[in-house]
Amino acid sequence: MKIVIFAGGVGSRLWPLSRKNTPKQFEKILGNKSTLQLAASRLQPDFAWEDIYVATGKAHMDIVRQQLPLLPAGHVIGEPEMRDVGPAVGLMTGILAKISPLEPMVILWSDHLVKKEEHFRKILKTAGKIIEEQPKKIVFVAQKPRFASQNLGWIDFGNLQFEKDNIEFHSFFGFKYKPSAEVANDYLQSGHHGWNLGYFVTTPDFLWSLYKKFAPSLHKDLEKIISKWKTPEFPAVLEKIYPTLEKVHFDNAILEKLDPRDALVVCENIEWSDIGAWEALKEALESSEKENVTRGNVLIEDTNDSLVFNFTKQLVVGIDLSEMVVVNTGDVVLICPKTSVAKIKKIVQSLEGTPREHLA
Questions:
Q1: Final residue of a structural domain among 228, 245, 276
Q2: pTM, 2 dp
Q3: Do 134 and 35 belong to one domain?
Q4: For residue range 9-62, what is the model confidence (pLDDT) as tens digits?
Q5: What is the CATH number of the domain that holds 122?
Q6: Distance (Å) of CA 184 to CA 2, 76, 93, 280
Q7: What is the number of structural domains in the chain?
Q8: Which residues of 175-205 are buried (b: 16+ CB within 10 A; e: fewer)?
Q9: Can you tell me whether residue 354 is helix, strand or coil?
Q10: Which of 56, 86, 174, 212 could cysteine-pair with 7, CB 3.0–4.6 Å?
Q11: How many Å apart are CA 356 and CA 349, to the nearest integer?
C-alpha cells in the first residue's frame, strides 16, 4: 500500500501557535512530536517508509525532511501555491497512478490525533485487502461519534455489507458538513452516522478516473504536470502550471458526485480527534469533561473547563476562569471563550497588510 499524508494549510484556528511560517502540523503541540511526526509514526511498524509520501507547500519541504528523516528522497512533494484540496489530492493521485496504478493508496491528514493506533493500522490493512479485491471502490474510514459535533463533517452509512478480519464494511449514503445542533444530535442517536475524517483507501487508477470523469479540466491540467514526473522538467512544469489550477475542494470536485454504490464505510472507534482548533485540542487531551488542560508555567485557581497553554518562561496565572482559552507565545497572548475560537481566523486575516502582519 502507498500512503499519502497531506501536510499543507496554515491552521489559523490554532493561532498564535500556528502561523504562516510555522503551521500547526509542524509544531510540537503534543509532547515532543509534531502532529506530522505523530501521523507518520502511528503507521509503524506495519507500513514501510518507502511507501509513504508527504504532500506539503513548497516552503515547508525542508521542515518535512527534517522532521521525517527516514522518508526517502523524492517522497516529499511541494505545491508551489495553495490551490485547495482538489488539486492537491489530484496531483498525488496522478503521480501514484504512474507509479503503481492498482496498488491500494491511503489518504491521510497530518493534524489529527489517533489514540488507538494498532486498531487504526488494522483498519487500513483490511481496507487495503478489500481494495485489492475491488479496485474500483473507495473505503471511507469514519470515527464513531462521541458527541453531537457541529464543527465536524459527518458520513451517513447503511447496512452491513460484509465483515473481514473483524472489521465491518457498510454501504455508503453520503456526507453532511457542519450540521445544526438538532441534526447533529439526530446523527449521534441514529447509529448509522460517523464523523468523517477525510481518510479513505482506493486505487490511484480508480480515483484518477473519477478526476477525468467529474473534473475533466483539472484532470487535463494535472496530466500535463504528471507527464513530466521523474524527468528533469518536472519541477519547472509544476511551478508553471500548478498555480494556474482551479481552486476547488476535493469534496466538491469528486466526492459529492460519487455514486454511493462505488463506496464502502468503516466506522470504528479509533479515538480520533481533530486538533486543528484550541477547543478541539482541549477535548482530545482532557480525560473527563469540564477538566482543565494546561501546559507550561501555569497556575490556575477556581477554574474549570479551560485550556491554558504557556510557551514562555513567564508564569501565567488564571483565576475564576470558566470555558476559556488562554495561549501565551511570548509575542502574542490570546484570551477568549471556547465558544469564540472560530473568530480567531478573522483576527488573523485582519493582520494582513498591517504593521502586525509578521504575527499572522
A1: 276
A2: 0.90
A3: yes
A4: 767 788 999 888 778 788 887 778 899 999 999 999 999 999 999 999 999 999
A5: 3.90.550.10
A6: 34, 37, 32, 16
A7: 2
A8: ebeebeeeebeebbeeeebbbbbbbbbbbbb
A9: coil
A10: 56
A11: 11
